[in-house]
């Protein structure tokens, strides 16, 4: 498996991955607008210095993706000024269970450490137990549960 920085040539596959993420998350969030929607500006992310977009290849095929984005901490009560936010984590169904997600996360952790940051955060729907298990396997811990009410 090869994990590498995404390029503009990868965009067609990455845009398909984005729709795969949206389709997987629709059952967890009734407030998502009808298709077509987009979560990310992937074309811009690929070129931004404070975002690292990675793809994992298996036998020359892009099998998975993820990004880390440096964000400013707006809360004065934490002991860090900036942190990395992980997103766009996707593995094609036929490649799940092969360590793709773990490989991408490890490379993103390396990039975050190279940026001098010590904090990585992500969001996952509480009902998405498979994703939660994968993130826990990579060392993430549950921190807080967001709650809401629709009026």
Automatic annotation (TrEMBL):
GO molecular function: acyltransferase activity, transferring groups other than amino-acyl groups
UniProt-recorded name of the protein: GNAT family N-acetyltransferase
InterPro entries: Acyl_CoA_acyltransferase, GNAT_dom
Residue ranges annotated for the N-acetyltransferase domain, each copy included: 1-151
Superkingdom of origin organism: Bacteria
Gene3D superfamilies xref list: 3.40.630.30
Species this chain originates from: Mucilaginibacter celer
Keywords per UniProt: Acyltransferase, Transferase
CDD domains xrefs: NAT_SF
Pfam families: Acetyltransf_1 (PF00583)
